[in-house]
TrEMBL record:
Organism placement in taxonomy: Bacteria, Pseudomonadati, Pseudomonadota, Alphaproteobacteria, Hyphomicrobiales
Matches recorded under SUPFAM superfamilies: Nucleotide-diphospho-sugar transferases (SSF53448)
Organism, as annotated: Rhizobium rosettiformans
PANTHER family according to UniProt: GLYCOSYLTRANSFERASE (PTHR43646), GLYCOSYLTRANSFERASE 2-LIKE DOMAIN-CONTAINING PROTEIN (PTHR43646:SF2)
Keyword list, A-Z: Cell membrane, Glycosyltransferase, Membrane, Transferase, Transmembrane, Transmembrane helix
Domain named Glycosyltransferase 2-like: residues: 30-147, 170-282
Residues spanning the membrane: 260-290
Protein name as catalogued: GT2 family glycosyltransferase
GO molecular function: glycosyltransferase activity
Main location: membrane
Length: 346
């Protein structure tokens, strides 16, 4: 997979341009957030020309997010704290609010509150969906705003550089065809991570397609500067692998196999080797070193400087343990009959 050199991007570069009224009226925008602060202000600024078609859904923010949204002119929905928050629940609530407002639209753009939308994306994505009636979801390039701020941010930017064309999932930001959204009942609200994957699996089974366009879509501000933040994010991914995998066993199959092999089976073999034969433990250690070296070479080929490539290789190897912890959290909660609650990293 080719990765473009990271670059710092300013909000001014993504200032909204003139958008044809007919296109603007064909698309609603659902913005979700929780304590995003200045990031939400930037997101609202990027869609100010679509304010009358936009709903902001707040999931229990304790900062001034709700006030900022109201001042921007968008419709605001504050979710009740009596039900666990999930991004899926917030997106469904935003969609319901748009429908209740009586706004007629054929497409809806979902976007997270820490992202700003590229000025050309709404037109590009709606035109594509108009020309391809069998496609339900159009997504483009999501970039990290500050990829050089930390290795964690840079890994986010790398992760989002997905192949063009037919895709299995879209990520949190995407333009969605309303008829397709309604045909599968929207997002499943109890899925706390990878809810877009779960949504796209159901779309695929219903005969719809998901497409990744060669176009700029959103600019994301991960703001990850600490190891603990990265760990929690990787833990959340593991929870998604387990929960969506339980709902759709064929999905995330490779991720779950790697998670169990590198996060549980090999460590167990290494421990047994201490009692059976030390060469077994040494062999497992060499496997981890080989995996890390292979990942490091991969990042080097994709333009990472040597030091960052090594750090990225180490983190990618370590992520299997984070993933496993998240998966075990899901299975323990399920066994105890507890509701799944969000895993926040910032």
């Amino acid at each position: 997979m080719f990765i473009q050199p990271p670059m710092e991007i300013t909000i001014d570069q993504l200032a909204p341009q003139n958008v044809p009224a007919t296109i603007a009226n064909d698309a609603g925008i659902i913005l979700i957030g929780r304590n995003e602060g200045a990031r939400l202000e930037a997101s609202l600024a990027s869609i100010r020309r679509f304010a009358t078609n936009t709903v902001y859904v707040d999931s229990g923010s304790t900062d001034e997010s709700v006030e900022h949204a109201r001042q921007s002119g968008v419709k605001v929905v504050e979710l009740s704290m009596e039900v666990p928050f999930t991004a899926a629940r917030a997106r469904n609530a935003g969609y319901a609010a748009l429908k209740a407002a009586g706004i007629g639209f054929d497409f809806v753009q979902f976007v997270d509150g820490d992202c700003v939308i590229d000025p050309d994306w709404i037109v590009t994505s709606t035109n594509f969906l108009l020309a391809h009636p069998d496609i339900a979801v159009a997504c483009g390039r999501r970039r990290e705003k500050f990829p050089l701020a930390s290795i964690y941010n840079r890994l986010c930017d790398w992760e989002w550089n997905t192949p063009l064309g037919k895709a299995a999932a879209s990520g949190g930001d995407a333009m969605v065809r309303v008829s397709a959204f309604e045909s599968v009942g929207g997002f499943r609200e109890d899925v706390i991570a990878a809810e877009d994957d779960e949504f796209c699996v159901r779309l695929g089974r219903a005969g719809w397609g998901v497409w990744r366009l060669d176009a700029e879509m959103t600019l994301h501000d991960a703001n990850m500067t600490r190891f603990g933040q990265w760990w929690r994010r990787a833990e959340r991914a593991g929870h998604g692998f387990a929960q969506v995998g339980a709902l759709h066993p064929a999905h995330f199959l490779a991720q779950r196999r790697r998670m169990w092999l590198w996060g549980a089976i090999l460590p167990l073999v290494a421990v047994l080797g201490l009692f059976l034969h030390p060469w077994i433990t040494l062999g497992v250690a060499l496997l981890y070193l080989f995996s890390c070296a292979r990942s490091t070479l991969r990042f080097l080929r994709q333009g990472f400087p040597p030091r960052e490539a090594l750090l990225a290789g180490l983190l990618l190897t370590l992520s299997k343990f984070c993933n496993l912890k998240g998966a075990l959290t899901y299975w323990v909660r399920r066994a105890r009959g507890r509701a799944n609650t969000i895993i926040e990293y910032k």
